[in-house]
Amino acid sequence: xxxxxxxxxxxxxxxxxxxxxxxxxxxxxxxxxxxxxxxxxxxxxxxxxxxxxxxxxxxxxxxxxxxxxxxxxxxxxxxxxxxxxxxxxxxxxxxxxxxxxxxxxxxxxxxxxxxxxxxxxxxxxxxxxxxxxxxxxxxxxxxxxxxxxxxxxxxxxxxxxxxxxxxxxxxxxxxxxxxxxxxxxxxxxxxxxxxxxxxxxxxxxxxxxxxxxxxxxxxxxxxxxxxxxxxxxxxxxxxxxxxxxxxxxxxxxxxxxxxxxxxxxxxxxxxxxxxxxxxxxxxxxxxxxxxxxxxxxxxxxxxxx
Length: 305
Ligand code: PSU
Ligand code: MN
Fold this sequence. Notes:
By secondary structure, the chain is an alpha/beta fold.
């Protein structure tokens, strides 16, 4: 935890030192995942939800070259207003951003890294990156999967969007030994929808069960993280065909526009939002709230073990 590049905010540091529950939250979802002002409102509300479910929130980002675990409301507002002007920071960006004293919005990858440096074990987000459709020729596979393979943090998400090849994403996680847990379901949820047609490894049904499984993984010193897929609440889920038509259209447009590399995911997310007239944004916000609550309750259960 002695890390000259890391600032853990005092409330988070105290909770970690005293063995109290803390939940890490990412910042790419703020700067690149949602428009202003909904991004700032959502990020602040997510922190409140973590608190009201018994944990301390630690939103993670890189600010002025400092790795930050725990942001102020002003810092969250800054990231939300700056939007895509802030670098989307994955593992390969981290060293240069820090060396140059720059800002970075952390993806699942860098949020896991910084959470682990700060002693935080549980992380809530919306969706993870994965193996993109067409990866057999583009080789576009998110660094998030590699991080899950190597960094011991539990990531609670709503599954993965079908902008990805969900089958190949699951194969990759299997190869790397990452447990994929459905929360109250045997099917991998697909972010906007509760169903995808793909099975998860295990269904667990309570924060206590999640915490117990993660405790064994840590006690046995098994490499890597654990992926928990928590389906969007039914009342906020989107129609399966409507969302999948929008995703197919977004992918077709991205091919026409020659989008690739780190631009791919933000481009597809923005196009899907445009094509669904904003309905997808509401679903996105609700599923993040749902994941934040489960993460806080799981962090609390983990601290009791
Ligand atoms: N998927 C989503 N919403 C997001 C992201 C992915 O449904 O906001 C963001 C996350 O920060 C994730 C990153 O870690 O995109 C993955 O980007 P890439 O595919 O370039 O690795
Ligand atoms: Mn990619």
